[in-house]
Amino acid sequence: MGIQITPSILNADFARLGEEVARIPSADWVHVDVMDNHFVPNLTFGPTMIEALARSTDVPLDAHLMIEDADRNALAYVEAGCGSVTFHVEAARAPVRLAREIRAHGARASMALRPATPIEPYEDLLPELDMVLIMTVEPGFGGQKFLDLCLPKIRRARELMDKHGVETWLQVDGGVSLDTIERCVEAGADTFVAGSAVYSADDPDRMVAELRAKAESAAS
Ligand code: DX5
Ligand code: ZN
Question: What residues are in contact with ligand 1 under a 6 Å CB criterion?
Fold first, then answer.
């Protein structure tokens, strides 16, 4: 799998989400940020809205659950039609069981780490996961500044994936833009969430293409 661009709709117009997603036809996935006002100090949407969005687009949905009690709530997002479901390891009591359940219900299973959460304690989980999401801002809001201090963790995650010989995708989320995407590629990421960069552009789909071109040239 090469470079993938996954725009986040967090900075889109929530009153017109179907139309907003139709503006990014070349996206590989649409990233949907689920926030519960407990795990993060912000509140967005839940499975019912995501189910409606899934019906309105052919682009697969990539759910990023910033919610407490991921163990009890994650499967609702598989059932809502998400092709990939990411839980935060800080909010999961039994991450192995949860990843297996997500996979068993037919979605890709992914684990996210906040900026201060290290990857090393979770090395043995890598074969259970289809993707690891490294947050490069504190989760909760779009439009924050990229945290360069997370780059060494991206590098370590890539090294661990190589060591285990797994095909796990490595996603970066937070402050990804034309200014920061090359650093992420060089550190070993292959899947990029971009919210404000895409939805503040006059032509969001052109921004998807520009981000992809920059990442692909950094990767080659
Ligand atoms: C933040 C969310 C991100 C957010 C990214 O907690 O997880 O997906 O939408 O937005 P930007 O790209 O603006 O940092
Ligand atoms: Zn996100």
Answer: 8, 10-11, 31, 33, 64, 137, 139-144, 173-176, 193-197
State the closest ligand 1 atom to the C-alpha of 42, by its place in the atom list counted from 1: 6
CATH number of the domain residue 115 falls in: 3.20.20.70
158-217 pLDDT, tens per residue?
A: 999 999 999 999 999 999 999 999 999 999 999 999 999 999 999 999 999 999 999 999
- Paired tokens of 137: 């801002």
Test site for ligand 1: of 137, 147, 191, most ligand atoms within 8 A of the Cβ: 137
To the query of whether residue 173 is one of the catalytic residues in this protein, the response is yes
pTM here is: 0.98
Residue in 82, 90, 87 with CA at minimum distance from that of residue 98: 87
Structural domains counted in the chain: 1
DSSP, residue by residue, 34-57 = EEBSSSSS-B---HHHHHHHHHH-
Average pLDDT over residues 69-80: 97
Q: What range does the domain containing 110 cover?
A: 4-219
CA angle 85, 88, 94 (to 5 degrees): 90
